[in-house]
Amino acid sequence: MRRARAFSPAGISGLFSAHVEPPDPYRKGARGAGLALASGVSVTVEVEESERAELECYLNGRRAELGLARRVFERIARRFGLSAPYRVVVRQEVGVPMGGLGSSGASALATALALGRALGLSASYIELAREAHVAEIEEGTGLGTVSGLVVGGAVAVVRPGAPGYDSVVRLVADPDVRVVVGFFAPISKRDALSRVDLARVNELGMRALADLLREPTLERFLESSKRFAARAGFMTERVRRAVEAAEEAGAMGASQAMIGETAFAVAAEDRAERVAEAMRRLGARVLVTEISWSPARVVP
C-alpha cells in the first residue's frame, strides 16, 4: 500500500463575484479576495491496486461519506487515465470550524495533491489543483477557494478560473499579524444565495475588488470586505456585533467570512487576545491563527 500526505491552509473569503457562465469548467470560478490561514486541513491517502474500485473516507477519525473527496478521485482517475481499479483510503483532519473558512476547498486541494503523490502520477501541482477546483464547483461547495490556496498569503483573484487559467495577486501585509475568527454557525451556501439578488451581489463584489486593487493592502481588504458583506445582505446580527466588538477591542479591521455566520478580524499580535475575548463574550467559538504565506503542499 502506498501512502502520501498533504496539507492545505484553510481560507477566508472576504468578498467575491461569481462567474459560472463559461461552458469550459476550468474557466468557471470567482473573482474576489481573501486570506490563507496557518490552520487548515491535513489529508492522508492510502492506495493499492484491488480487484474492484473502493473508496473509504474518514473525517477527523470517523468513517464518513465525503462526496467531494470521491469527486476529486473520479476526476483525477479520468484525467490521468487510471485503468486498474484501486482501493483508496482518504483520511481528512480538519483543524478549523466548518462554515465560512474554506475547509471544502482546502480538503479538495489536499486530497488531490496526496492522491497524485500516492498514485505516482506524472502530474504537475497545477494540474492536480485544477481538478480540485473543478470538483469543488461540481460538488457545489465553492467557486474560487482553491485559487488562493495554491498561492498563500493575502490574495486577490483578479481573473476567475482553475489554477493556471486564473490570475492571482498577493496583497501587502505584515507577516506578524494575527487572524481572529469568531465562529457562530454554518450557513448553507445555497440558502444564503437564494435570499439575495446574485446579480447585485456580483456587481458589489466587482466594485469591492476594484476598490481593493486601487490600494492592494490588508487594511483596504478589510474595509472593502466589511462594506461588501453589509451591502450584499449576508451580515447577520451576531456577526455585525462581533465585527463592532473586534474593532472596539483594537483590531485593524473586521468583517464576515463568505459564506458563514463567522466573523473575522486582523489584529497586531499584542492585541489579538483582546479581540478574541471580545468575540468570546458574544458566544463565538474563537480561533486565533496566522496568515499562511505558504501554499498547500505535500508533507512528510
Overall description:
The chain has helices at residues 67-79, 103-119, 125-139, 145-149, 189-194, 198-214, 218-232, 237-248, 272-280; strands spanning 2-19, 29-49, 54-59, 62-63, 86-94, 154-159, 167-170, 178-185, 253-256, 261-267, 285-290, 297-299. Helix 1 (67-79) packs across helix 2, helix 1 crosses helix 3 and helix 8 (237-248) runs antiparallel to helix 9 (272-280). The radius of gyration is 19 Å and the shape is globular. The model has no long low-confidence stretch (mean pLDDT 94). It has two domains: 2-169 and 294-299, Ribosomal Protein S5, domain 2 (2-Layer Sandwich), CATH 3.30.230; 172-290, Alpha-Beta Plaits (2-Layer Sandwich). Strands 1, 2, 3, 4, 5, 6, 7 and 12 form an eight-stranded mixed β-sheet that branches. The longest helix has 17 residues, at 103-119. The chain is of the alpha+beta class and 300 residues long. It has nine helices and twelve strands.
Briefly summarize what is shown.
The protein is α+β, with helices and mostly antiparallel strands. It contains nine helices and twelve strands.
